[in-house]
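Teaching assistant here, posting this on the class forum so everyone can see the example we discussed in section. The complex has two components, and the goal was to see what a joint structure prediction looks like when all of them are supplied at once.
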Amino acid sequence: DAGITQSPRHKVTETGTPVTLRCHQTENHRYMYWYRQDPGHGLRLIHYSYGVKDTDKGEVSDGYSVSRSKTEDFLLTLESATSSQTSVYFCAIRGTSGGQETQYFGPGTRLLVL
Amino acid sequence: DQQVKQNSPSLSVQEGRISILNCDYTNSMFDYFLWYKKYPAEGPTFLISISSIKDKNEDGRFTVFLNKSAKHLSLHIVPSQPGDSAVYFCAAHIGSYQLTFGKGTKLSVIP
C-alpha cells in the first residue's frame, strides 16, 4: 500500500457541470500522475506533476486541467464534463519496489457523465 | 498509433501450468518496461520490470524476457495459480518516466 487515496470513489454528474477529482498521497513523492482507463484503450496519461505547481500534459489532456498546490494533493478538474469523459480515473505516484522503479496506483474513481 | 501492443485480449491456462503474456512495442527509444496486474475495481499493482540493458529479470514465479531486436517482451508465470487471474498490462517509458500502456490481456487460470 503506497498511501494513495482518491476521492470521490464514485461520481455521477451531468454534461456541462464542473467536476474535481482529488488524489492524496502520504509518501511525499515528487511525481504524481492522472490516468484514465477505458475499454479497448488500457491506461492513458492525462496530466502529470513533477513538483508543487509544476505540471505538464499527457497523451489525452484536452478537456482536463490539474493543480498541485501541496506535495500531497494533485487535483484533476473537468471544467465542463462531457459524456466522452465517462471513465475510470487513476492517480499514481512514482516510487520504487524492491529496487525497481515503478508507479503506484490509487484505487480509482469511477465517473459517469450523463 | 499504438506504441505498446498486447495483441491477445485474453488467455486461459490450467492451474499449475505456465502462463505466457506477450507484448510488442514500436518505439526503439523505450528504455524501461514494466508489467502490472489489475483486479476489477482496484488500481493496477506493479509486478516486475526490466531495463533495456537486460534480457531477463526474475522475481519469484514471475520472469520477464526482453528481446530488443524483435521489440518484444514476455511475462512468464510459473506455476500459474487461480489468484493470478486478472488483467495484465505491459508498459514502457523513455527517460522522463511517462508510462505508455498496452491495452491489457485478461488471464484466466482454471483450477
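For the discussion questions: Chain B has no helices and eleven strands. Chain B touches chain A at residues 4, 6, 32, 34, 36, 41-46, 48-49, 59, 89, 91, 97-104 (CB under 8 Å). Think about how each of these relates to the inputs above.
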